[in-house]
Amino acid sequence: GEDVEQSLFLSVREGDSSVINCTYTDSSSTYLYWYKQEPGAGLQLLTYIFSNMDMKQDQRLTVLLNKKDKHLSLRIADTQTGDSAIYFCAERRDSSASKIIFGSGTRLSIRP
Amino acid sequence: NAGVTQTPKFRVLKTGQSMTLLCAQDMNHEYMYWYRQDPGMGLRLIHYSVGEGTTAKGEVPDGYNVSRLKKQNFLLGLESAAPSQTSVYFCASIPSGTGSAGELFFGEGSRLTVL
Fold first, then answer.
1. Each residue's pLDDT tens digit, A61-103
2. Which of A1, A42, A92 sits opposite B109 (nearest CB)?
3. Collapsed DSSP state (helix, strand, coil) of residue B103
4. Taking the mean position of all CA atoms in its chain, how far away is CA A67?
5. How far apart are CA A62 and CA A58, in angstroms?
6. Is B31 exposed, middle or buried (0-12, 13-18, 19+ CB in 10 A)?
7. Which residues of chain B make contact with A97, given a CB cutoff of 8 A?
């Protein structure tokens, strides 16, 4: 996407925490999202955070937002084999009539 | 509850042929989007629309045209297909307005191969 950046791969041991990072570009973005894509499937919304929040927790998922650095992270606690997927961050740029721009995705693999 | 429906799901074209992908949503959403997904490149925005009769260019609009004649439909056209347009295409929609988190509702994707 237009400068929404993620690392391409992450490998973690089953039971450990996974942290997937993302940097975005538009300081006026109102919402930031994390989507999950399993092999051969479409995209599933995991969670989102509004730009006036620093943190959002939802069961095993924790989203941290650093607006100053335009940095977003997704932490998955107690990572399971079912978490293997590609994770995309996305920003909603309301300065551009709600363009929603995705990062290139981080492929999470789980080691036994 | 159909949600977002894309047709066709699969298509093989020869270089130079034309085709249209149809996206239909039954949720009365204002905003609609066309993305393409290629390995290692995530989803890239092709064109989008913020309402009936309006369209705008995204990140990779070249070689594609779109139309939004009816609110529920967003068409993506390839006038002269090229092998570089081999991809999986996703349509998505969101409601507009304040108070909406803007969760994208995705179609199931259309796999296009250009030989």
1. 999 999 999 999 999 999 999 999 999 999 988 766 678 889 9
2. A42
3. coil
4. 15
5. 6
6. buried
7. 50, 56
